[in-house]
Fold each of these.
Amino acid sequence: MKFHIETWGCQMNDHDSEKLSGMLVREGHEAVGSVAEADLVLLNTCSIREKAVHKVHSQLGRLRELKAQRPLLIGVAGCLAQQEQEALFKQAPHVDFVLGTMALQQLPRLLEEAKAGRRVMDTAEYPDNHLFPPEVTQRRSTAKALVTIMEGCDHACTYCVVPTTRGPERSRPVADILDEVKLMVEQGFREVELLGQNVNSYAGGCSFAELIERVSEVDGLEWIRFTTSHPMNFTRELGRTLATNPKVAPFLHLPIQSGSNSVLKRMLRGYTVEEYLERLGYLGEARERFAISTDFIVGFPGETDEDFEGTMAVLEQVRFDASFSFIYSPRPGTPALRLSDDIPAQVKAQRLARLQKRQTELTLASHEKAVGKILEVRVESLTVTEQGHWLARTGRWENVHLTVGAGRTLPFGSLVRARITGAGPHFLRGELA
Ligand code: SF4
């Protein structure tokens, strides 16, 4: 069959789609670039916020019309599949199969059953789901390779569906991860991103800090990134490793969610603002060269003006280089649903706008510090863009629009030296040094 996979959500989902694509190619199916060309459409979904769920349902609506015109198999995978399970067949009767987040390797079997006209679902928790054979993964042409180190989450943040949709924490053995990183370097990658819902609580035979040290010993590897971290599991040992290991890209995403201790308590985040700041301090002097990003939720049930001022105050105190901020979205099956969603929509929107406005100013100020410097950047685009520049990325995860001489090409995925000539809130401008 000709298949097309659409992906929503986090990098874990992006990487799962690479695995799903790899299994289909191994079975002899052909990946195509659009729904229009496909006999099989697989939606790899997200359910972290209501907005993501709406996008999936509107796409399912479009696929229903297409399926009325020609043969088309439709599968739904990812967190919405795990959350809704058989209810998805009621919501969208034209769906042929539902594949859970912990049953990825059952895709070939489900597809054969669906091709035979049976409507099937598998959302069981397969204990070896996280032990996926890396040689099967069909990687997109990116400058960095995504490497899963663990799946699931044992935390219980009251607003979050992940513990339900991704299950308990399971860590891959160190040896498997090192073998995959070596394979990635053999395939030409010089940068890896270690993935997990909470990489800091990795427990596959050593601590996360030690895992980073061992990954950094792989010859040919230049940069190591990782996501997502939880402040509760951010240790002095990890801070020291990030600060001292030269292969660790100077970028840390450490979600704080709120600057109010009473909101953090109702979120069951397990730390206070003071403890968060203390742990960020584990980076020591390296803090200066690291870019720090975070996540914020505004409008959480019971969030007072004073609570929100706490969020603005921590934004000011840390001067985050970037942040992802969202309005609280009540999620099915989460404990926060028992709390009354009492913040008026207008107030939520005003708080989000104010926070994002200040963040944009801080990001611009952070970018402006790079002007005039010569930085190592990784080439991320295969060719020059329409605007006549190459896309590259600094170690601090800053976008760089790089100008090079006419007709000159850059080696995709490799590091080049760039002189930063300008800064905007969303990217830097540079030229080859
Ligand atoms: S740490 Fe909290 S927010 Fe993050 S995935 Fe786990 S439960 Fe969700």
Amino acid sequence: MIRVNGSSSVVHATLRLCGLILLFSAAIVAQVPSPKSVLGFYPTDDKTIADWRQIHDYFTKLDKASNKVAVREIGKTTNGKPLIVAFISSADNIKNLDKYRQISAKLADPRAIRDEKELNDLVKNGKTIASIACSIHSTEIVASQMSMNLAYDLVTATDAETKEILENTILLLLPSSNPDGVDIVADWYRKTLGTKSEGTSPPELYHHYAGHDNNRDWFMLNLVETQAITKLFWKEWFPQLVYDVHQQGATASRFIIPPFFDPPNPRVNPSILREVGLIGYKMAADLQAKNVEGVATNSTYDTWWHGGFRSAPYYHNSIGILSEAASANLMSPVTIRREQLAGNRNTRGLSNLLEIATNYPDTWEGGVWRPADIAQIEMTASRSLLQMGAKFRERYLRNFYERGRENLSPKTGEPQAFIIPAGQPNAETVSRFLEILMAQGMEVFEMKQELYLKMEPAQRDFHEMPLGSFLVFVNQPQKNNVLSLFEKQVYPSRLLPNGDAEAPYDVAGWTLPMQMGVEAEAIYQIRNFETDRATLKKVENINQVRSVVNLSPVNTAFAKKPNPLKTNPKIGLYKGAGGSMDEGWTRLVLETFQIPFRSVSNEDMRSGNLDLDAIILPADSENTIVNGLSAERYPTEFAGGIGTAGVDNLKKFVENGGKLICFDDSCEMVMKRFSLPLRNVLAGVRRNEFYNPGSVVKLDVDTKDPLAKGLRPETAAYFSSSSAFDIAADARVKIIAKYAAKDALLSGWMLGEKLLNGKTALAEVTVGKGKIVLFAFRPQHRGQSWGTFPFIFNALEK
Ligand SMILES: [Zn+2]
């Protein structure tokens, strides 16, 4: 038991005076431990940091002490730590959690509701399910620390507003969506406190595979954390409100909240955009009432892209909120000068941080900026969200239901379903693709007999499709998720006044079947829909899919795949000291396919410890690879890159018969330092001439080449501000794939396509006894582009 401010003597007094009942209620309040009483410091104070063990410990104690809290482990993290959610609500609601979960789940699927009366009962009796998720980006550390204060505050406050929140909402608080990263940051911060490195980012990825890209995984589900939270949200609890708490750069506005910037994605229900804006304005108004300066709306972040924590909810009919507070240096305060704010002029929708605007009515003029400042803003915003959820409970529940119901009715021009035809050669990929859809709660059906289908709206005859194909109907509650993953994206052309392309917040196109190399076609009509529907069998689990595509059953979700290599090469994957996301994603792909490899460090490169058959250089700049981290800010053990010694050793490695495989940016260093007869035609090209921030593009592939074994003559590849090669006539160079000579854009946005048409996308150069394989793009983009993984496997073969 923990003593708080001598309150146990109060408890004893109560015992003697008032008997058992009063003792209980008094004891419950008195025993709820404050974060300070458990940690020994007040979280979010300057230069304090709680690691995951401490945060976990605090929430465990809170669970024990308060009947308003229930903490559940929802899975293990990549590094094996407990991933937890804290349910916070009134004691009565916490007692009946499963009842409220079921109400929310029913409202998520209007087909499960019999009639108007049942609907009215559900709306009347349900609670708003709201989730607040902290510090998925672990260097944006303050929210994870703030989460303990928020929880304590909600559990112990006795005012009417808190009572209303607890009675009407059930909060699913994720103290961190990436606990591994909390520890990586906490360890680094403690180790470097008081040194030249205090407040720097740790010199490693703060998610084992993805680093910062861990918030790029919400439709692909490569990471166990994304899988666990997706299950919690879209298979179990169906939160109507999802708030993801982030931080931005230190010299930006103090806080950014919705409404968001343009463009919106046309697949986001307009009512969601309005509701997102409403909550953002509530937050903004509440912050203004507290005289918080420097709060921006309608800027920077758009709602185009699908794969973020707060954007995935839009495709489940829910309201996703993102906030971005200006950062300190991890938990150390910073001083921001007025001139630094004046210099920050590149923000979309926010041209001058020192001038008021309708979306930024109160400027912040600079000064000391502390973790506690961030925490207070985030606490206020969290409360605003919960107040909305409480006050408009019935409205949120009914609107959530209505959006799902709207999705069940066909709209003119939309397909009826998508078919994944039987007989595709890449059965493992097809199986993973369907597993990803089902893990998000999408319904998939197996065709038990052939069907007659129209593949074009105006087609006259029906086309026979074989049994063993799979169907995904469009008219299911998460219709927009279906459409947004299957359709090609057409990003609007957005140019700045100077003619430069305006960057979207993230990528412009992501069509999943294209990225994965899975054949999928839109179906506009099924011939005898009513009778044929009875022949379809709903897919209940992944082994049902696997039995249809003739694969052996698996025991786990997202199981690893068999090693596709025929030979047994000794593989090295370069891993610099700074933490490269592209390295992490490459590692994930190799491990997913159980391909043995070892990491090659800067020291290995410098000392020539390269007894390997093949080395992969993930996409990084020449400067990052050769020079690495700066010794001015990082301890010597982490500073520096492969250096010129490493470059020389790499050359020797190739000349002596090794194979060097370069992805995208890393080609630059190798082409230059090895004097190869290739050049990137897109290097230095301005944004008004060429721009492609992330789209699916078409490659023409020489399928006779061993590097292209198993690929199709036309293959979709992922291009994300990538490269395109011009090659001087040279007998040493072999071209394996080119960007299509025309119509290369398959999904997304590309300005100035002609600069890329017909240029080389994949080449192999013979150097001495060895070979260099140069990918102009990233064939393993965020672990999503399964369609181009075979290029990597082929390149790795001996
Ligand atoms: Zn972030």
